[in-house]
Amino acid sequence: MKLKINFVLKTGIEGEIPVLAIINFGYKEFDALKSKYIYKPLKYYTGIKVARHDWDDTLKQPIPKNKLHELLKTQRTIEEAFQYLQMRNEVSNDAIKNHLDIKLKGKSDDVVTKVRLIDFIQKEFISREAYSDKTKIRFSSFVRRIEAFELLIRKPLYSNDMNEQLYAQFMEESRNTLKKQNSIWLLFADFRTVMRRIAKTYKISVFVPTHEISSNDKVRFKFEEKIYLNFEQIQKILNYEPPSERMLDTKLILMKLLFTGCRYSDVFKVKPEFSYDKDGVSFEYTRFITQKRDVEVIIPILKPLREILEQNVERAHHRYSEAGFNLNVKELARQCGMDEPITLSYTDSRGKKQFETKPFYQFVSSHTGRRSFITNLINYVPVTILTKITSHQLKDASIIFGYNKITLLENAVLFVKELCRLQETNKDHFRFQLI
């Protein structure tokens, strides 16, 4: 076994750039993409950082003497670690990395240095009661993808194994099975979350894609074309008499989403438990803390929702998971005759724009309710009022919106007054009474 060490600057970084030691001693690993064993050098972060103008590309070393001395000292430590492990017949990428972590970074050899991703996700995300069912389902799906990848590369996936090459293989395999870029983005976000949590929990250095891959290779969320229900379509649902208990449950839940603009995680909190009656303005309203942003909202109960809740006041509808509701609401939309074919664009997992044509009801989901509420009102109700109702953040206008100091209840009163006025002046748009 012959040791070879090269020092390189991390790509895609500006300012002070980390120096990597490329340590090669003939180690091979199975490459899932090429279906064969390939040489895999250890890429080790030395902890040394150098500005690009202070790096000699020919000699592959820093120009400043203090940085050069530090790097040569690191090289000797790597050589000594390799010799030590070779004498013990224990040379491997993991063994060298762990040895260097102790010698160069002062890590104790009794601390956790590697964590199996599947075990960590199960413990920290799926088994925690604090997380919603939606989050647990998402991370369970993430685990299944890692399990499939482990079968492909023929070994368990540990935190200290992760590097740019292995990450690229994982994402490539995911692109082969996932259809849309936003699905890849969600996978990227979950991967980033898990690696950051491992680093924070065990105080160890791990591969985090946002830090260690070039800007061009990063996955970005795409705002895609989505459907919403206009007032004419909502009227169809209002008029529809569901033939089963399941569809009646679905209609009741959808009505809450359509007429409050809340997220599905908050839909079962919507209850007309409070009332306002002052200066000729009266309405019932719901008040709760949102699940996603942990902020308070006050939302008036609009007339169509109030009437359907009164009709079913004695009925406790079933609490479906969001995935279950999404299946149900598609069927409800189909039964309401929303089966006309429509074509929407999307970005595929390779970043290319594509078109898909499906019956309208196939595009309906839980978020369609919130989107419909906002879309039907945003060009009529002042956005300063609407954002407080829907608990949206407007970061680009944070300074201006910082002056909006009216209380949530005062905002709800303004919302009701505005809807009353709009119903009289925009009858073509507002097909039925909201107040």
Describe the protein's architecture and organization.
- The N and C termini lie far apart (81 Å).
- A hairpin with a 6-residue loop joins β1 and β2.
- A three-stranded antiparallel beta sheet has the order 1-2-5.
- α9 packs antiparallel against α10.
- The relative contact order is 0.08.
- The protein has 435 residues and is an alpha+beta fold.
In short:
This protein is an alpha+beta fold. Helix content is 45%, strand content 16%. Strand 8 (274-278) and strand 9 form a beta hairpin.
What brief labels describe this structure?
12 strands; 3-stranded antiparallel sheet; 15 helices; elongated; 435 residues; single chain; alpha+beta
Report the principal-axis shape. Answer: elongated
Q: Considering DSSP H and I runs of 4 or more, what fraction of the residues is helical? A: 40-55%
Order of helical and strand elements: EEEEEEEHHHHHHHHHEEEHHEEHHHH
Number of helices: 15
Calculate the terminal CA-CA distance, rounded to whole Å.
81 Å
Largest sheet: 3 strands, antiparallel
Q: Name the beta content range.
A: 15-25%
The parts where pLDDT drops under 50 for at least 5 residues are: none
Helix/strand-derived category reads: alpha+beta
Strand adjacency order, main sheet? 1-2-5
Mean pLDDT over all positions:
90
Number of strands: 12
Radius of gyration, CA atoms, in whole angstroms: 28 Å
Strand and helix layout:
Elements (H helix, E strand, L loop, with lengths): L3 E6 L6 E9 L3 E4 L4 E4 L2 E10 L3 E2 L4 E2 L2 H23 L5 H13 L11 H10 L6 H21 L10 H14 L3 H22 L6 H4 L18 H9 L5 H16 L13 E5 L2 E9 L6 E5 L2 H9 L10 H14 L5 E7 L5 E7 L6 H12 L5 H8 L7 H4 L6 H18 L10
Helix pairs in contact: 1-2, 3-4, 9-10, 9-11, 9-12, 13-15
